[in-house]
Amino acid sequence: MINFVMPDLYPASAEIFMLIMACTVLLVDLFSGGRRWLTYLLTQLTLAGCFAITLFTLDGQVVTTFSNMFIDDLLADFLKLMLYPAVAIALVYSRSYLAARNLDKGEFHLLVLFATLGMMVMISASHFVSLYLGLELLALSMYALVAIDRDSVRATEAAMKYFVLGAMASGMLLYGMSMVYGATGSLELFDIGQRIALGGGNKTVLVFGLVFIVAGIAFKLGVVPFHMWVPDVYHGAPTAVTLLLGSAPKLAAFAFALRILFSGLGELAQHWQLMLMILATLSIALGNLAAIAQTNLKRMLAYSAISHMGFMLLGLLAGVVGGDSRFALNAYSSSMFYVIAYVLMSLGAFGMIMLLSRAGFEAENIEDFKGLNKRSPWFAAIMMILMFSMAGMPFFVGFFAKFAVLQAVVFAGHVWLAVFAVLFSLVGAFYYLRVVKVMYFDAPTDLAPLEAPRDMRILLSINGLAVALLGLLPQGLLEYSIITTYAYLIGG
Amino acid sequence: MTGLPLLSLAIWLPIIGGLLVLATGSDRNAGLARPLALVVAIAGFLVTIPLYIGFNPTTSEMQFAELRPWIPRFNINYFLGVDGISVLFILLNSFITPLVVVAGWKVIEEKVAQYMAAFLIMSGLMNGIFASLDAVLFYVFFEASLIPMYIIIGVWGGPNRVYAAFKFFLYTLLGSLLMLVALIYLFFQSGFSFNLLDWHALPIPLEAQKLLFFAFLAAFAVKVPMWPVHTWLPDAHVEAPTGGSVVLAAIMLKLGAYGFLRFSLPIAPDASRELAWLMIALSLIAVVYIGFVALVQADMKKLIAYSSISHMGFVTLGFFIFNPLGVEGALVQMISHGFVSGAMFLCVGVLYDRVHSRQIADYGGVVHAMPKFTGLAVLFAMANSGLPATSGFVGEFMVILGALKYNFWIGAAAATTLILGAAYTLWMVKRVLFGAVANHHVAELTDINAREFLVLGLLALCVLGMGLYPFPFTEVMHASVDNLLKHVAVSKL
After folding, report:
1. Burial of A51 by CB count in 10 Å (0-12 exposed, 13-18 middle, 19+ buried)?
2. Are B424 and B294 within 8 A, CB to CB?
3. Which end of chain A is more exposed for a tag (fewer CB within 10 A), N or C?
4. Which residues make beta-bridge pairs with A358?
5. Which residues on chain B are in Cβ contact (under 8 Å) with A433?
């Protein structure tokens, strides 16, 4: 006899709202008769509604529901509150770009909503099954989004590549999860953590599974040597999709990695930290070196994303020293700060590409930024702020992001790792400087006025100024990162 | 004392003023941008005057201190203060800024607002470097000051400006990034403090001190610049516009030397003493070898750039012989070099604006067309070669005396600068200013106008004043230098 218990839906109210609204958008789009602004508006309202729900149901309690598959804690709430604006900003930036290319169909918005739902589930999942579900919901929506411009050969190729490699990574992840399940007999993260702590499970099997899980995560983060898809997909996808792909999912991936590795497999930290160290050093080195050779800005930013994710991993690997997890608060909160800062910068940088693009013209080559200071001093300054911030220069938020992670790394005793990271930041500075160089030192070749709509201009300006302002006064965001990480650590 | 946060004003007034100038926008408003920039620059200088007047020279304590939490997450404070070592540089920097604004008044015709704003912002950032007593605050200003200079060289520079701008930026960034790791290391060693004064009292084992010393060396040696990491400077100087060269030589080079006094010596005194031989050797190479290199330059700006490196070698030499004469002499030399090198670059700028060449060979007999200019230029040249009664003599003499006390041969080697400096400077003067009129370009030269005369004249007054009566300068630094040397003499192991 099956005993059905109605799960507590309250903790997942934002997800449920999102799902209902996604279906509503689908129906409304079907019958709206080509009034595309309606779908756009509904999508934005959905995100705003989710934001309100998450904000008002925020109580600092750790609540699990759906038989412990879903967890609602401060970490989840905070990251979701960052996630919605990131997606909403991406949609504002994309609007005119999509309209000019006739891509602003209902499907686009629908897929974005489903992808967002996937990210929300990833952030709140505390069970292998729900983690996997969230991940796949995000991934499948993204595959379709990359290919949304179906007549573009480049986009189709990128989508195909992304799909094949993504499916393989999912397979690896699942394989790793099954090994862990085999060793511990549980799929639930906290339960797995406890069982391993009590000496349950065969270490060899666990570590074997761990390797596959880490490989799966590494693929989703796009770090070396699982990065091959990143440049091609970033380059091939329509810029609006690249923007979406390169920003918000990093937040979800961070929570995903943290929960699996620390909540579930925290006892194996010495093993996965070593793996992360290899991934991080390779990513920082290769990402920065390969970015130098790029002439396409999207590809350059893709390699830069690889190196940034490597930097983020540096924070994750500094959390446990010799079985002592007192370093975790400092390290993971720094990593979180890094991801949030990166998402903000990445949104701005891809936003700039779309600002300069217009019907029939993609401003995706670095050359296309030539002489921007002549064409629009204001947006040249915004782009300069973004580039210097990505390079980790003060007074921009990128500096404190790097600083936070570096201090965590040194605190954990890896001084030479920090030296390695800063030396490659120097390499990184070169290609960001080159963008500033073409904007400021070169004469413009293209004198067409910028066509972007006003809402995008204002938002992009705010985006750029926020990068500068958070660099002057980073304390608030740092504090939120540390509060949520603390709540997460004592909750687990 | 006044209740005004003077140091904060010295930092933020030019920065905010610079942003205002930037807001005047396109070159149609250049008529507004220029006077506004000048007003901001002068106001920026005026707020620093009370720093000198109100300064108490009898103590080595930090004065005009401001302490507020900035980023409590990492215990980073907005901690400002000056002692006898730093206060003069804030004044020097704020004094040079209006001169640079005036010097670029007519010469810069493109993107005037951006040009002026870049200099004002940089001026504020550099004041921040000299006033910071919190390591991260220092670092943040130190790195941020690269950005405006990168833009200045790259936008208004000469034909090879892109190469020079990149080289300048990446070279200096390399050094400072290593320092960042050292700062973070010290943060944990000192029990979560970025307060420089805490670090000065922190015991550190010798091996760690040596590593820290080298990390600081990487940052500051590039900035000074010391041989063999000096190669960015001639490129940067040659390509930068006149104003950029002036700020680079007069202020930016001092940042590195200042860093030695604020970081290397007090934080790692044992390593400093242990490795003094290395620093002395590098300094002497800079003084002697670079002096010879300067001799053969055909480009006036390059020649002055090499002369700067040679003079800065003198400064680092003065620091690492650990006696009051040496350190004070080096500080005087830094201030004096600020006036003299700034003035020399302005002189080259005056000629370049008229003839559009920096080659020595393109000139000759300038005195016939420009007597007023020649008078001033010869004065600066004399100061550069260390003639008594000019500011250049005071510092060099003190350092040489100090070095002789330390070791006769080191002093003797350092003293060759008096010959070398005179040789390369006066030979250039002879070839450019005197002799027969070389060509019709020179014959058609017009003498300096009132604006140029004002700028050069003010600097000439400083050079002469400091040479005749250096007491107001040395008086201020006395207590702080004594305290520093006492501190360095005590082991921190």
Report:
1. middle
2. yes
3. N
4. A361
5. 150, 166, 169-170
Distance CA A299, CA A47 (A): 29
For residue B225, whether the previous peptide bond is cis, meaning omega lies within 30 degrees of 0, is yes
For A224-264, the DSSP string reads: TTS-THHHHHHHHS-HHHHHHHHSHHHHHHHHHHHIIIIII
- The whole-angstrom distance between A310's CA and the closest CA on chain B is 18
Kindly state the tokens that stand for B253.
Answer: 């080079």
Residue A1 is predicted with a pLDDT of 54
CA B108/CA A275 separation, integer angstroms: 55
Indicate if the pLDDT at residue A360 is higher than 80. Answer: no
Tens-digit pLDDT profile for chain B (493 aa)? 457 888 888 899 999 988 988 888 777 777 788 888 889 999 989 998 888 888 888 888 888 888 889 988 888 999 999 988 888 899 999 999 998 888 888 787 888 888 889 999 999 999 999 999 999 999 999 999 999 999 988 888 888 888 988 988 998 898 888 899 999 999 988 888 898 888 888 888 888 899 999 999 989 998 888 888 888 888 888 888 888 889 888 898 899 899 999 998 889 888 888 888 999 999 999 888 988 998 888 888 899 999 999 889 889 999 998 888 888 889 998 999 989 999 999 998 888 888 888 888 888 888 888 888 888 899 999 888 888 888 888 888 888 889 988 888 988 888 888 888 888 998 888 888 888 887 888 888 888 888 888 889 989 998 888 888 888 888 888 888 888 888 888 887 7
Q: Quick check: B143 and B175 in contact, CB under 8 A? A: no
Note whether B151 contacts A: Cβ–Cβ < 8 A: yes
Cβ of A425 within 8 Å of Cβ of B146? The answer is no
Give the number of residues written for chain A: 492
Cα–Cα nearest to B337, from B277, B288, B276, B399: B399
Residues of A in contact with B181 (CB under 8 A): 406, 410, 415, 418-419, 422
With vertex at residue A26, the alpha carbon angle to CA A21 and CA A28, rounded to the nearest 5 degrees, is 90
Kind and range of the H or E element at A72? strand A70-72
Tell me the residues of A at the B interface, defined by beta carbons under 8 Å apart. 373, 377, 388, 393-395, 399-400, 403-404, 406-407, 410-411, 415, 418-419, 422-423, 425-426, 429-430, 433, 436-437, 440-441, 474-475, 478-479, 482
CB contacts, 8 Å: A407 with chain B? 74, 184, 187-188
Q: pTM, whole model, 2 decimals? A: 0.93
Residue A83's contacts (CB-CB under 8 Å, 6 or more residues apart) are A116, A119, A120, A123, A248, A251, A252
Rounded to an integer, what distance in angstroms lies between the CA atom of residue B362 and that of residue A185? Answer: 87
8 A C-beta contact, residue A173 and residue A216? yes
Alpha carbons B308 and B302: distance in angstroms, whole number: 10
The amino acid present at B451, given as its one-letter code, is R
Q: B interface mutation test: which of A440, A479, A484 has the most B CBs within 10 A?
A: A440
Task: Give how far B23 is from chain A: nearest CA, Å.
Answer: 10
The C-alpha atoms of residue B105 and residue B116 are separated, in whole angstroms, by 9
Report the amino acid identity of residue B396.
Answer: E
**ipTM of the modeled complex:** 0.90
Q: How far is A491 from chain B (nearest CA, A)?
A: 22
B114 chain-A contacts, CB cut-off 8 A = 373, 377
DSSP-assigned beta bridge partners for residue B76:
B71
Q: In this structure, which amino acid lies at residue A417?
A: L
Do the Cβ atoms of A423 and B177 come within 8 Å? Answer: yes
Residue ranges in A294-375 assigned as alpha helix (H): 297-316, 328-356, 372-375
The pair of three-digit structure tokens given for residue B70, joined into one six-digit string: 């900035």
